[in-house]
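In this supplementary section we document a worked example of the pipeline. Step one takes a protein sequence of length 321 as its only input; no multiple sequence alignment statistics are reported here. Step two produces a three-dimensional model, which step three serialises into structure tokens for compact storage. The input and output of this example are shown verbatim.
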Amino acid sequence: MPLRRSSALRAARILITLAVVAGVSYALYKQWNGVQQHRLEAHPRWGFVALSGVVFLATYGLLIATWRAMLAAWNAYLGFWDAARIWCVSNLGRYVPGKVWQIVAMGKMAADRQISPVAAAGSAILSTVVNIACGMAVAMITGWRALQAASRGNAALGALVIAIVVAGLALLPIVMPRLLRLYSRVTGSTIAIEPPPLRAVVIAIVGNSVSWLLYGLAFRLLVVGVVGNASGPFASYVAAYSSSYVLGYLALVVPGGLGVRDGALVSALVALDLMTYPQALLVAVSSRLWLTILEIGPGLIFWFTLRRAAPTTRPLANGST
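The serialised model returned by step three reads:
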């Protein structure tokens, strides 16, 4: 019986992997056809492309460290490589319609490592909610000058959005129990409901805010690597990347935000006067390919090659069940 279950899981992994690769490949094929319709002046600089990947993966490391610190606020402890495995594998859920499966997988895998259900589910939901909220706030703040120009100095709507995001982050300790109840209904699990520790919320906000700035740096380096230069302020690249990524993530039924994120990125790059439309199209397709490799690659490596090691957790105090 265990052997059959193991074979079924292995087959499911292969099928999911093939489906993800096929979907991404088809989307890239369609986007590349659009690129070929335009005459482009591209000057690839592969050193910058590689450096972009290093910064991106370093940002992953920061987010993993942030998640571990959040767990510690619940008096739950996880080794770095266990945390990296859970983080990277659960990120594959972004390419499954609904995206809620990323949160479910993260919470379930953490619980399997003897993390309390409260800490596992709470940290998974908190990480995702804060990441998206911080992405919105960072996009609005770094793109404020462009927003002011586009609205002819009347950016009241943008200020309202930032205020709502900040208020939402401040209300997380109150909202989180409701999100945990929703998580319980989706997963069918029964967990104790309690507000997250304030320290976990603060850690999540700081870590995710810094990560969006680093993502913007990685994106700017990629732009230099693809078209040969990156004119315009650094803040504009942060705004273009973060806003398009958040929009792609919020398109819940679209795996990986395919098409939505890419179209938003092209529009943002052109609107911010960072490059021409053909260049923006090339950058968007290149960014999608590079981002897909960096997101899916580590997850698949951990999923297929690493065996389950002995738990590296420490005895729990608060939040254990």
